[in-house]
């Protein structure tokens, strides 16, 4: 996994009272998957009077997806935007596609840019079309072969960024506005049969899921990619504009074999789902991934969650968006 830059942020103490937050380094069990009863039975079967030793070997299996992916996404306007006069539109945008190569994209328009909701929308849709157009010509030869070509992956990632810059340039020309009025972040995950490519410009969070089966019990693990960041007004962040450099782009590749789900989200969504340092991730994500692979995750479920009273408690009121791809196992 490679990175070309690090964007430093001021850290804060995450809301550890949220029962949906779990340490990334530890295994977590998503909602709907019961805790293993075996360990409890073993504990209750031991006593000081009759010590016993369990000689059974622990069987641990790393789950691999079967290649059938599902996609869902949502973007909702933040409550603080609705309190403005006049109300501001949702400046987030997201999209995810399950075939032919699964990908998830999210973008957060800069709050200080007058028409950034236009920029974020057209960047996500434009990159989505680019990936579908180049699927056989560039993506398959890059991500579906055993050999890892880091230089070629880097070139493709930077080509994607250049395309996004071109989209904003075209919007600026069409609307007779400076490019800075359309600035937005960009988060991407693109899955091949062998390799997965990720790219990050600005704040928000990229998360991937893997699943282990230990003695028949499935345990989900959630980890972040790149720096998380906490938003434009919390500290300086990076946006796509004419001043963007290669050093502002975080990117990398990793094996696809054991990835069971991927999530791209704006900083508004990450505010309650991922801690500032990226070391804690909400198990809610694995619950959503499980529903999605069962084809039971409606977009309305995501929007209802973002407006839920518990989710909004101590929330900044920023827009929330997320793009999810989840594989059957």
TrEMBL record:
Segments for region (Disordered): 1-20, 25-55
Top-rank lineage group of the source organism: Bacteria
Every PPM-type phosphatase domain range: 78-304
UniProt feature, compositional bias: Polar residues: 39-48
Pfam family, one: PP2C_2
Name the record gives this protein: PPM-type phosphatase domain-containing protein
């Amino acid at each position: 996994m490679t990175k070309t830059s690090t964007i430093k942020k001021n850290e804060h103490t995450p809301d550890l009272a949220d029962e949906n937050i779990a340490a990334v380094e530890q295994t977590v069990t998503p909602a709907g998957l019961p805790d293993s009863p075996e360990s409890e039975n073993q504990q209750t079967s031991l006593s000081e009077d009759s010590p016993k030793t369990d000689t059974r070997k622990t069987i641990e299996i790393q789950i691999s997806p079967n290649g059938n992916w599902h996609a869902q996404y949502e973007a909702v306007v933040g409550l603080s935007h609705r309190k403005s006069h006049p109300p501001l539109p949702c400046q987030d945008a997201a999209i995810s596609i399950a075939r032919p190569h699964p990908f998830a994209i999210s973008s957060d328009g800069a709050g200080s840019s007058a028409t950034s909701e236009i920029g974020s929308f057209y960047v996500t849709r434009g990159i989505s079309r680019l990936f579908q157009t180049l699927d056989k010509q560039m993506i398959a030869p890059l991500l579906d072969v055993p050999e890892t070509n880091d230089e070629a992956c880097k070139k493709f990632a930077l080509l994607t960024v250049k395309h996004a810059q071109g989209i904003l340039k075209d919007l600026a020309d069409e609307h007779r506005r400076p490019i800075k009025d359309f600035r937005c972040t960009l988060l991407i995950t693109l899955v091949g049969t062998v390799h997965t490519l990720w790219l990050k410009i600005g704040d928000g969070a990229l998360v991937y899921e893997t699943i282990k089966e230990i003695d028949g019990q499935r345990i989900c693990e959630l980890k972040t990619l790149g720096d998380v960041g906490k938003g434009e007004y919390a500290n300086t962040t990076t946006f796509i504009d004419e001043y963007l450099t290669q050093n502002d782009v975080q990117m990398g590749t990793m094996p696809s074999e054991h990835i069971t789900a991927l999530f791209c989200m704006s900083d508004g969504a990450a505010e309650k789902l991922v801690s500032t340092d990226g070391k804690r991730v909400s198990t809610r994500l694995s619950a959503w991934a499980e529903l999605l692979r069962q084809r039971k995750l409606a977009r309305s479920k995501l929007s209802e969650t973002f407006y839920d009273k518990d989710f909004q408690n101590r929330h900044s009121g920023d827009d929330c968006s997320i793009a999810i791809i989840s594989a059957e196992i």
